[in-house]
Structure formats: C-alpha cells, structure tokens
Amino acid sequence: MKYKDRIKGLMILMGVIVAIAWVAPVFILLNSSFKSLKEIYISILAFPKEIVFSNYTQAFEKLDFVQSFTNSIMITVISTLIIILFSSMTAWVLVRNKSKKSTIIFMLFASALLVPFQCVMLPLVDLMSHLNLMNRFGIVIMYLGFGSSMSVVLFHGFIKNIPLELEEAAMIDGCNIFQTYFHIVLPLLKPIMVTVSIINAMWIWNDFLLPQLVINKTGWQTLPLKTYLFFGQFAKRWDLGTAALIIGMIPIIVFYIASQKYVVKGVTDGAIK
C-alpha cells in the first residue's frame, strides 16, 4: 500500500511539474502584456507596477485585428466544414463497401498521417502555383488534403457501430444514396463530427507555415501570419508584441474551453465503436 501511495504521489508531483512547465510561458506572456517596455527590460518575471491597457488597444489597431480575424475565421470555418463533409462521406463508403480496394484506400489514408508536411511542402507549392491556386481558395483545398487523413480514420472507427439496418430501411422506403447519407447517417455522426471539427479548427487556426507559403497578398493574412509580420515591424516593442499574441490566442482558447468535453468523448466513442 505504501508503495502504491509513493507511486501515486510521484505521479502527482510529475503532473504538477508538467503543468507548471506549460502554464509558465503563458503566465509570463500575459504578465508582460500589461507592462511597459521599460518594465519588461528591467524584469520579465516581476508583476507590473502599473497596468498598461494601452498595449492592447495599440496592438489591436496595428495588428489590423478585425481583417486578420475575419480571414482566419473564413478559412478555418470553410476548411473545417469541407473536411467534415468529404471525410465523413469517404469513411462511410469505405466502411459499407468491404473489399480489398476499400481496405487499401483506408490504409493509404492512415499512412498519410505519418508523412510530415515538410516532405511535400515544396512540390505542393510548385504544383499549386502552376494551377494559379496560391490564394485563399487554394489554401482551403490544401487543408482538405492534409486534414482528411486523420478525419477519415476517426469517422471510420465511429461509423462501424452504426447499424446497417437503418440504412437498409431508408433505402427500402425509397431513399437514394445521398438521401440515406444526409438524413440517416450524418445526424448520427454528431459526436465525432464535433471532435473532428475541434481538432481541425484548432490546427488550421494556429497554422503558420502553410499560410506563409501560400498567402502573399496584403489583406489576406491570417491572424498567426499577421502576428508574425507585426513582430517584424515592431521587433523591439515587446510590450505590444506580447499583447498581440494574447489577442491572437483568445478566440481559439474560448472555442476550446466551450467545446473541450466533446474531444475526449468523440475520440473515445470512435475507439470503442
């Protein structure tokens, strides 16, 4: 019993250490965002002697937050919806059509998870430039390609537990394949759809490398890309820079807190089913 208590205590201690390691940078960032530039240079860990709210107002204005936020929202929402639609349809077809071909196709989707983006980065950019897709529409297509692999795997595991009899009954009643999918299958996918949407939305929202490669027109920049350009313009203004980073973090943190319970539930349901 004492041995188990020691192990439990050690695990709790390790958890506290890991939590501090994760929270400390965010705390330093938040703390610095309310300090003047002089105070940041004096001590980055000390609490601000006087809270400077003007850092946020200046960063909001210079970051062109409304435009960047709109670009990020548009790209994230459209990409996520397209990934959910195409991935769920693909997974459904692969589950219901059991054959060697469907198994091979599913394994290709699963294997794509092992391919780093950096390995296909340059050929992809070269191809998209020749197709004149180095724009916001093109980046949505690319996100569909990169997000489909994990999404298909998650949907595939969940759909296995949906009774085939429901679809057969719908087809007997006169539904075609599209009506069966949209009226019968899709409503049953809500738990895993929420999980897939959260995972993809967080990844797309925070993505920096792909927008930097594809989006090269002023006014099209997403929030992470605009923040990077902001730091290039105000490299020594850490007071404004830290405030800009906090502003960029707030939307996705709020979104995750509001829906984080669905992540574990959806993944667990997909694994069990």
From TrEMBL:
Its main location: membrane. It is a multi-pass membrane protein. Keywords: Cell membrane, Membrane, Transmembrane, Transmembrane helix, Transport. The chain crosses the membrane at residues 12-30, 73-95, 104-125, 137-159, 180-205, 240-258. InterPro entries: MetI-like (IPR000515), MetI-like_sf (IPR035906). It is found in: Cell membrane. Residues 69-259 form the ABC transmembrane type-1 domain. This is Carbohydrate ABC transporter permease. The lineage of its organism: Bacteria, Bacillati, Bacillota, Clostridia, Eubacteriales.
